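Supplementary Methods, section 5.1.

A reviewer requested that the exact input to the structure prediction be made available. We therefore reproduce it here, unchanged from the version used in the analyses.
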Amino acid sequence: MIKRNKFLCLMFALVQIIFVGQVNATQWKDLPAQEKIVLNSMSGQWNQLSTEQQNKLQLGAQRWITMGNEQRDSVLAKFSQWQKLPAQEKISLTQKFQQFKKMPSSQQKTLRDTHKKFGKLSDQKQRKLRDKFQKSKTKLINKKNRQQRTKRQR
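The structure derived from this sequence is encoded token-by-token as follows.
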């Protein structure tokens, strides 16, 4: 349980959950007992954290408490995968996530729906779509490079 709690605290610090909740800082002694258990690794520095950081961590702890074991295992597995990624890939994914969050909700919904449909396709169909996308992406890059060379030659 302690290992999971440390993973959880790190995950919430990395992912930066959208915070909802209280406006004022909460002292460690005033936290509910279950939240203290989940956030145990933060006890020494809790009172020095910003209100926003505290709110995010508390929200994450509340979500963790309400999760079933399967959900917790899934979160831990995803976090483990995240930790194994190279730093540059983490930066890239974080930037993409920030771009996604800036999109209008209708566009976010469209992307989520498309991702769901893609996930339901067979591995073979997914592979074909990835290959097709990669080829079209390569064509666009080559076209852009030719245009830039042409501009420089003028």
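The chain has two domains: 2-86, 114-153. These observations are discussed further in the main text.
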